[in-house]
Amino acid sequence: MKLLVRNLSRAVTDEALRLHFEAYGAVQSCTVVKDTNTQASKGFAFVEMPKAGEAKVAMKALNGTEIDGATIRVKKAEPKTASESPAPSESPWKTRGDTPS
Is this prediction's pTM over 0.70? Predict the structure, then answer.
């Protein structure tokens, strides 16, 4: 199950975020989304956990908790529809502010 983690401190790294989620189960991937030009964090990430049950527990446990001074929000990531297809450099997962074209 792929999770969207919002409101991250810009200082949070992939590794640091992975540690928080690994407390609830196996983590397949953990990626803090970065600006393509500056490589600075955009303040959100995607965490993929292979077992849906573990992902749901992690989502409930970590949503509303504080990491590096920021209260994070965790929810299930929803794939973009065909009409919302991203440019090759964009993520295929919905984030805040996405609207259909």
Answer: yes
